[in-house]
Design a protein that fits this description.
five-stranded mixed sheet; five-stranded parallel sheet; 14 helices
């Protein structure tokens, strides 16, 4: 069912264009010219989504978004011709707007945003039905990883409403968190009160289901808490290590990743350190470097096919040690092969996914839930190093035409 939409705008040209787009999409909508009249309309009629101009006259947009969210529970989309990242972050984060749409509106983008906003509205209604213990758990989750504050403390030029939606999907729709809530609801509806024992009873199968999902949800909470510690760290690593230690780290990674490599019968090929690295040193926090390599290899496994080979290579280039993790570029369900240039920076942003379909069998992954590559980038930067990703023409693997290559560049130190 299509959402009922309220448009809040006064500019005649923009308003006509917005009306035309919604009419072509066959959405039911009404129009208000300012914030006060829009709030009155929200009180008189049920709307699910509001599309509001970023520069309202009278009541400012930030106040309007806050009040409409608090009083009526609608989902707000802000539209503007201003693509300034700081403003986008402010409106999407602090002021709780769901998405930011650039003018002139494009029909496909509007449809995607409205559909997602409608789904978010339904989700919010579901959350409202949780009992106090469920709400407390939900609140605790949000406190552990205050993603809005973290994003606002950094210049995230690529932040979009899509990222927000993917966060919702990663954390609350396709996760152990959502499954735990589902099973808790089953518990409250299926538990039977035994008057003789003065206690509630459930079946063994339901108990096991709740227990299993609690274990997964608990792991997710711990993962997010650990991610939070890394992402908020400001002190750089200073410990210096010999590059030869990579041999031992790789050996440990190979052993610890065997179970995940077996999921699709994949192989991990570890290249040798060049002779020119003998006696050379880099800044190296051993445990963190190990986490980076494991995450990059696991990520390569998830996006590769059965029996593919994941390769780790080493080079010395311009006074830097380069570590490259390569995997065959395979097409996903969206028809994308590898990582397009426009997404080469986005893959390191929180909750960004190249594909809506991701193999969820990799339960031993150290970091997940859309945070793995974000954590990797942060750790690398704390080593005064850099990381890039590219899709290149085949130079190594005979089974694919191109490869995805993550390259970490560590400066050599005296």
């Amino acid at each position: 069912m299509l959402p009922k939409v309220l448009i809040v705008d006064k500019e005649p040209v923009d308003l006509e264009h917005t009306k035309k787009v919604l009419q072509e999409l066959e959405y039911e909508f009404d129009i208000a010219n300012d914030g006060e009249s829009a709030l009155q309309m929200l009180q008189d009629r049920l709307y699910q989504v509001v599309i509001v101009d970023a520069d309202l006259e009278g009541m400012n947009t930030q106040d309007f978004v806050e009040r409409s969210n608090r009083l009526f529970g609608v989902v707000c989309l802000v539209m503007s011709d201003d693509s300034d990242p700081e403003r986008i972050i402010a409106l999407l984060g602090k002021y709780a707007a769901f998405d930011y749409i650039l003018k002139p509106l494009e029909k496909a983008i509007v449809k995607s945003s409205l559909d997602a906003a409608a789904a978010r509205y339904e989700y919010n209604q579901k959350i409202a039905s949780f009992n106090e213990s469920e709400k407390a758990f939900y609140t605790r989750m949000m406190e552990i990883f205050d993603w809005r504050r973290e994003l606002q403390s950094n210049q995230v030029e690529s932040l979009t409403g899509t990222m927000i939606r993917q966060m919702n999907k990663n954390l609350f729709e396709d996760s152990a968190f959502a499954m735990l809530f589902s099973t808790l609801n089953m518990f409250f509806s299926k538990a039977k009160f035994n008057t003789k024992k003065n206690s509630y009873e459930i079946t063994k199968n339901l108990y096991q289901l709740i227990q299993d999902n609690f274990v997964l949800a608990n792991k997710m909470v711990k993962t997010i808490a650990e991610s939070q510690k890394i992402l908020t760290r400001t002190e750089a690593f200073t410990e210096v290590g010999d590059i030869s230690e990579f041999s031992m780290i790789l050996s440990e990674c190979n052993k610890e990743l065997r179970s995940m490599a077996a999921i699709k019968s994949q192989q991990l090929f570890l290249g040798r350190l060049p002779e020119t690295t003998r006696g050379q040193k880099i800044i190296m926090d051993r445990d963190s470097i190990k986490s980076v390599l494991k995450e990059l290899v696991t990520n390569a496994m998830k996006y590769s096919l059965a029996k593919d080979v994941i390769i780790v290579l080493f080079f010395i280039n311009n006074e830097h040690l380069e570590v490259k993790v390569l995997n065959p570029a395979r097409s996903n369900k969206e028809g994308m092969s590898g990582i397009y240039e426009k997404d080469e920076r986005m893959v390191f942003e929180p909750f960004f996914r190249l594909s809506v379909s991701v193999d969820d069998r990799y339960k031993d992954e150290e970091f997940g839930y859309g945070l793995g590559l974000t954590v990797v980038k942060k750790i690398v930067e704390l080593h005064n190093a850099s990381i890039l990703v590219h899709t290149i023409q085949n130079n190594v693997n005979e089974t694919s035409e191109s490869e995805v290559v993550f390259t970490i560049s560590f400066p050599l130190v005296e």
